[in-house]
Amino acid sequence: MTRERATKKQQELLQFIADFLKEHDYAPSYREVMTVLGYKSVSTVAVHVDGLIAKGYLTKTDKSARSIRLAAERTAEHDAHLAWLKGEAARRQTAGNDTEAAVLMQAFELLDR
Asked: Which DSSP symbol is given to 45?
């Protein structure tokens, strides 16, 4: 699965968030982002953050301030786990365990985003 490429402004924002998280261990507020990156409104920050969430670069844990986090990168180990999960679902389907196979496939679909 490949991510849609971030725009130049989104890449700038993503780098700022990554640096801020590394330095402070919490996310910047939208107002801090606006001030540092020179945006004219908080809503502009929200548009870019939402775009990065939609593209899979960021996650937001809840609606509270400072809940932005960098999305985990897909690794070979992650892909290997997904392959095992899909194989296990197929094996259980073949064995007649349709309910278990369906649950495993749902888990696969959730994790393969």
From this structure: H
Q: What is the pTM of this model?
A: 0.63
Rounded CA separation 113/109 (Å): 7
DSSP track, 52-66: HHHTTSEEE-SSSTT
Label residue 27 exposed, middle or buried (CB < 10 Å: 0-12, 13-18, 19+).
buried
Please state at what angle helix 8-24 crosses helix 30-37, rounded to 10 degrees.
120
What domains, with CATH codes, occur in the chain?
Answer: 8-70 (1.10.10.10), 76-111 (no CATH)
pLDDT tens-digit series, residues 63-72: 777 889 888 7
